[in-house]
Amino acid sequence: MNKSFLQSVLSIVILMMTFSAQAQALWGETTLGMTPSEVIKMVEGSYLNEEGDTLETGAKELVQLDDLRVIKELYNVKFYFIDDALTQVTLNLIKQRSFPLTLLVFQSLTDALSSKYGKPLSRKIDSIKRIKTADAYWLSDGTIIDLQVKAVDDDPTSLNITYQLHLDPQQKSSTDLENL
Question: CA–CA distance from 20 to each of 17, 64, 104, 110 (Å)?
Fold first, then answer.
């Protein structure tokens, strides 16, 4: 299968999910399927970013918010869209630091997210290998909240919080079959 066919099928699946999940909350007051202009109106300080990244799913960053303060740290917020419909929101920690120091931020965020969404469904830290990771995720009303830390060797560490729609495996299977 070629890449454009897979992207087309994925776009159809996401559009179908958008219609079946009206007003599905993502991050803050944003909801799945919002247009870039709706996000800009809803999120104070956000702006159109046509030079944004494109994810493997084909989702393109079209809106950004700079310098959002969360628990004494600054984040850039990226809003990803497929066919002008919001599909994902990612908060990226601006200040990079070593893995051990980033784990302190990870723990603070884990505590804060746990107070809002309950105990994480999964939480793991692997600091022994060359590629060091920490991950925790929650599921709230159909939205996955995924907190991730990654570092390679002694390079600066990245920390992201991603909000996206949770696909029910049964729903995904039936949707996949409909697209054959």
Answer: 5, 26, 39, 30
